[in-house]
Write a structure and sequence with these properties.
Blueprint (H helix, E strand, L loop, with lengths): L3 H47 L4 H27 L5 H11 L6 H8 L11 H16 L10 H24 L1 H11 L10 E5 L4 E3 L2 E11 L10 E7 L5 E7 L7 E11 L3 E7 L2 E2 L4 E6 L4 E9 L14 E4 L4 E4 L3 E8 L5 E8 L24 H4 L14 H7 L6 E7 L1 E2 L4 E7 L6 E7 L11 E7 L5 E4 L23 E2 L6 E9 L4 E11 L11 E5 L11 E2 L4 E2 L8 E5 L13 E9 L10 E10 L9 E2 L3 E6 L1 H27 L8
Helix pairs in contact: 1-2, 1-5, 1-6, 1-7, 3-4, 4-5, 6-7
């Protein structure tokens, strides 16, 4: 007979044992997985505080956890379900707990097995043993023999799982823990921090200058205040990393603020990261250095006023200004060209000047001593209540105060025309209240040239023409070599029947062109030499040049082919290079001034000079005037005696020079 009751109880014991093994294994597995998972999250969280957790490390953590999960499940959950819990093993276990069976339970199980070998044994004895065993089994509950405390231990372990998760959530925050869970499965999500840093500095910086790295910082509401400082690590190319202190630019608010770190001047590109509290920059910042633009060449020309003349194409004449220092006439304009060492996107010519000198310098404050914005005008600088006086009335103390009015102001800004990425040009009129100019160029990164080169501006009045009377000579052929031997000084005027004549030769020069000439004369009467007569002006006609007269000789005031009696009252030389130089820069003349109509008498004196005007249309313009020359009116006989005396005097001088040359060891210079 089969031990039905015993087998049924053994089956129940088997199921309960496997259930307990499963629950215990699952609880162990869950606590192990939770601890390892939180440990991996902690590793990710800690590494991410200083740098981005490498994707490879995250992948390795995931693989390691997966291997651990699988191995632990196989060892703690699956393996116990396959251990030997046969009826025989369980019967032996029950008999070890219940000595009263006295091996009858295992005997009943084994002897009633269909495969049991019972050769030689009494069936009646087997049945009686089985019956006694069944009676004993009906009186017992095998499950009660089990130590079921592991069910309680499993519940305790399972209770630790939410506790650990709750503690982790309280430590890093629920949102952070959720992101950490996602990151364990390689989700590309940034870990939330209580402090968030964002670099707001530009990438491109001027070479050789200090760099101020700025960060916009936000944070979650916290019971404690802001960190006192942070750290910025700089990684220069080809050099070791360097750390700099990160400080608040100003007192931050409750939620946000700006922090900055100053990097000393350098020209080496670098990357950088920043840390403040538990926050850091998510991505490495980059700083690249670019040289500021430099004006490597600057040329300037003065465009002469239109009254000077123009080129064949109608454009005004220009004068090159060495080193860019501009000096020009009133009414002139200027043209400036530049060339830079790198492409630029903008070029501005700034015209500088000081405040008006006629403004009273007794100011209620010393505001003008402070740096002045170049965008301010005089209306902004001087209030309407400020008194105005003449500059001559300013005292010595006032003049000293005027010198403290601060730097020059940018009175005008002119956008230069860019001829290409490297060259620019600008033109402007010259004004008396502007004393200097400078060029500011800006490249594609917004970098302006440091310390723009300053060049001077000066307006000057046109000097009147230079006029000189040429020496008088004995009558000779034109073209004959002139020397001191042919000069004659103070030749009188003979009072002839038709009136005498005075030969006048002169030359004139002007930097910007001659306009016209006139003779200026007056009579000094013999009877009243202390009161000369009034000056008279006689316009001199300009000679029209013929093709056969030859070139003009300013040393004689005539043309190469002029005759002795040819009258050239005034001639101005045309330009030798009409594309570069204005004409009429040099001129002169030679003519005979007829004195017959002047009513001269013997003993009177005639005083003459030549005046030449330039092209300046200003009615108050000063004209050029030669030295005056006085001529005494004499009779023809007196003129003859004067000439003989002059010739005799010249002969004595020549004889003396010959005798001196004849003495050995002496020269005519001694």
């Amino acid at each position: 007979m089969k031990p039905v009751a015993s087998l049924r109880q053994l089956a129940q014991l088997r199921r309960r044992t496997r259930l307990m093994d499963f629950v215990w294994g699952v609880s162990q597995w869950l606590i192990l997985v939770t601890v390892v998972f939180l440990l991996a999250c902690s590793i990710d969280w800690l590494i991410d505080r200083r740098q981005e957790t490498p994707w490879l490390l995250r992948g390795m953590l995931l693989v390691a956890q997966a291997v651990l999960w699988g191995g632990a499940a196989a060892w703690l959950i699956v393996a116990p379900q396959f251990r030997d819990l046969s009826d025989r093993r369980l019967a032996l276990w029950v008999e070890s707990r219940v000595p009263g069976y006295d091996h009858r339970l295992i005997s009943a199980i084994q002897l009633n097995d269909p495969d049991a070998r019972i050769g030689g044994m009494s069936q009646a004895l087997i049945d009686r043993t089985t019956l006694e065993t069944e009676d004993k089994s009906r009186e017992m509950d095998f499950i009660r023999l089990m130590d079921q405390r592991r069910f309680g231990w499993s519940g305790l372990l399972l209770g630790f799982v939410p506790i650990l998760v709750l503690l982790a959530a309280l430590w890093v925050g629920p949102g952070t823990l959720e992101v950490l869970f996602q990151r364990q499965f390689l989700a590309d999500e940034p870990i939330p921090r209580s402090i968030h840093l964002e670099a707001i500095s530009p990438v491109i910086w001027p070479s050789g200058e200090a760099v101020t790295l700025k960060f916009h910082v936000t944070r979650r509401p916290m019971l404690w205040g802001w960190p006192r400082s942070g750290r910025v690590r700089v990684y220069p190319v080809g050099r070791p990393a360097e750390d700099y202190e990160l400080l608040a630019q100003s007192q931050p608010s409750e939620r946000e603020g700006t922090f900055e770190a100053v990097i000393p001047a350098t020209s080496t590109d670098f990357t950088y990261r920043a840390w403040l509290g538990d926050g850091r920059t998510r991505e490495a910042g980059h700083v690249q250095f670019e040289p500021r633009p430099v004006v490597r060449r600057q040329d300037a020309w003065v465009r002469l006023p239109l009254y000077v003349g123009s080129r064949p194409d109608g454009s005004p004449f220009e004068q090159y200004q060495p080193r860019g220092e501009i000096v020009g006439l009133f009414g002139s304009s200027a043209r400036v060209t530049i060339e830079t060492q790198k492409p630029v996107t903008e070029a501005t010519l700034e015209l500088l000047g000081h405040p008006a000198p006629d403004l009273l310098t007794w100011l209620p404050t010393n505001a003008l001593v402070q740096p002045i914005s170049p965008n301010l005008g005089l209306v902004d600088l001087f209030p309407q209540s400020l008194a105005v006086v003449n500059a001559q009335q300013i005292s010595t103390a006032g003049s000293a105060a005027q010198n403290e009015l601060g730097p020059e102001l940018a009175r005008r800004r002119i956008r230069m025309q860019l001829l290409d990425s490297y060259r620019g040009e600008a033109s402007f009129d010259l004004r008396s209240n502007e004393t200097a100019y400078r060029i500011v160029v800006v490249d594609e990164h917004g970098f302006a040239n440091a310390d723009p080169p300053r060049r001077g501006l000066m307006l000057q009045h046109d000097e009147p023409p230079h006029v000189e009377l040429l020496p008088e000579h004995f009558t000779s052929a034109v073209g004959q070599s002139l020397s001191a031997e042919t000069e004659v000084e103070g030749k009188p005027i003979p009072l002839a029947a038709g009136g005498g004549k005075v030969r006048i030769a002169y030359r004139a020069q002007d930097s910007y062109g001659l306009s016209r000439a006139q003779l200026r004369y007056r009579i000094i009467r013999r009877e009243d030499p202390e009161n000369p007569g009034p000056w008279f002006r006689l316009p001199l006609d300009e000679v029209q040049v013929a093709a056969d007269v030859g070139p003009f000789d300013p040393k004689q005031g005539v043309f190469a082919n002029s005759g002795l009696d040819d009258q050239i009252e005034f001639h101005a030389e045309p330009s030798r290079d009409p594309d570069r130089l204005p004409g009429r820069l040099e001129g002169g003349g030679r003519f005979d001034f007829q004195t017959g109509a002047l009513g001269l008498r013997v003993g009177d004196q005639l005083e003459v000079c030549v005046e030449v005007l330039d092209k300046n249309p200003d009615p108050d313009r000063n004209l050029g005037r030669s030295e005056t020359r006085r001529k005494l009116v004499v009779t023809p006989e007196e003129l003859t005696r004067w000439l003989l005396e002059k010739a005799e005097h010249e002969n004595r001088i020549k004889d003396l020079e010959k005798r001196q040359r004849a003495v050995p060891g002496r020269s005519s210079d001694q």
